[in-house]
Recover the amino acids of this structure.
């Protein structure tokens, strides 16, 4: 007769108990009640969205309960007014990775969700929301949902990270691979100095891989690819677009000249050579004779005309109201161009070397790959 092993029997007994407990615990752990009630926003709340203000809306609800008293996770779902949340427009976990019974969404977030719901810019529309509680594989919808009305601002819910201009009327032509980039000046705001001719003019966002087209209609920025050039003959324009309020402007740049402060006039007009670049070579410059010596201060004058046909002028000069003469070791920032006031001498640069009765090469760079700047080489 074989010897009976009490330790082995005891081990098998304990393992059986643990296995039974695991099965019971699993069953209990996944038993939860639905969210008890939706607290805020109240039913039929109206919100006029203002994304730049950083205002926010707090969604809050009562707790769901688990049978074993352990944690429950929450997910907030949004859908169209007639949706059933089977394929929600948008969903996200609540605060603290789904543990909190509230969710804070900014007006910018809600503007994007409203866009997904088909609510147009500057229009009102309804959005429905609810909350799912979950534990393990068990997901329990709330017993109710609520509808809110949102009024979207003018503008687009999402601005491109990068923006380009393309079309037969642009410098890059109709080939998208040759599209010319805009300069980003702030969030959702872009500008470009470029030449337009007769033909199509479209703005393109390729951030997501699927191109999205925009076009300019007067002072409005619209989605679509039906844009046309404002001119039938080649002209240089400063184009500005603001996706935050769907605004746009086209300003014709009629000329760019070297403004010589001591003579209070443009000494030489600089031709446009393409893609935000003006350049002239071997042009004579003679410093102005004063009693104390020769004055060499200069900046640049942009003569321009808006869409209404009104002409104006804009000086581009230094960030400093007064400057020392440039040297070979002057930092790149010395040559940066910024808009300045209509004054004769202030915010001028000084030539690096004597240019009296010499020739110079002048380059003005209004391009997207860095700060606007210029270069002067004395021959």
């Amino acid at each position: 007769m074989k010897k009976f092993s009490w330790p082995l029997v005891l081990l098998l007994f304990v393992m059986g108990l643990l296995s039974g407990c695991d099965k019971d615990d699993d069953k209990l752990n996944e038993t939860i009640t639905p969210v008890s009630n939706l607290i805020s926003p109240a039913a039929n709340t109206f919100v006029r969205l203002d994304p730049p203000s950083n205002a926010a809306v707090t969604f809050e609800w009562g707790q769901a309960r688990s049978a074993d008293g352990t944690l429950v996770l929450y997910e907030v779902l949004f859908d169209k007014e007639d949706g059933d949340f089977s394929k929600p427009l948008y969903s996200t976990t609540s605060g603290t990775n789904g543990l909190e019974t509230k969710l804070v969404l900014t007006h910018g977030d809600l503007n994007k969700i409203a866009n997904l719901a088909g609510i147009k810019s500057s229009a009102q529309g309804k959005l429905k929301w609810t909350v799912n509680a979950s534990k393990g594989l068990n997901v329990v919808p709330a017993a109710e949902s609520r509808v809110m009305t949102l009024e979207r601002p003018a503008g687009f819910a999402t601005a491109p990270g990068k923006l380009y201009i393309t079309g037969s009327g642009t410098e890059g032509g109709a080939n998208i691979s040759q599209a010319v980039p805009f300069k980003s000046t702030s969030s959702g705001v872009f500008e470009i100095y470029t030449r337009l001719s007769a033909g199509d003019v479209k703005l393109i966002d390729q951030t997501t891989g699927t191109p999205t087209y925009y076009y300019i209609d007067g002072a409005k920025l619209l989605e679509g690819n039906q844009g046309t050039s404002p001119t039938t003959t080649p002209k240089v324009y400063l184009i500005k677009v603001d996706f935050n309020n769907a605004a746009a402007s086209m300003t014709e740049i009629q000329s760019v000249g070297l403004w010589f402060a001591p003579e209070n006039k443009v000494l030489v007009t600089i031709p446009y050579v393409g893609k935000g670049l003006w350049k002239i070579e071997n042009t004579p410059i003679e410093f102005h004779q004063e009693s104390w010596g020769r004055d060499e201060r200069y900046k640049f004058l942009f003569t321009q005309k808006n869409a209404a046909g009104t002409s104006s002028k804009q000086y581009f000069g230094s960030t400093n109201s007064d400057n020392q003469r440039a040297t070979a070791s002057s930092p790149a920032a010395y040559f940066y161009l910024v808009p300045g006031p209509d004054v004769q001498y202030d915010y001028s640069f000084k030539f690096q070397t004597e240019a009296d009765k010499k020739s110079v090469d002048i380059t003005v760079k209004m391009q997207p790959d860095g700060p606007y700047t210029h270069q002067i080489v004395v021959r």
User: Anything to note?
Assistant: Helices lie at 6-29, 95-98, 107-116. Residues 6-29 form the longest helix (24 residues). The chain is about 10% helix and 45% strand. The chain has three domains: 38-151, 164-245, 253-378.
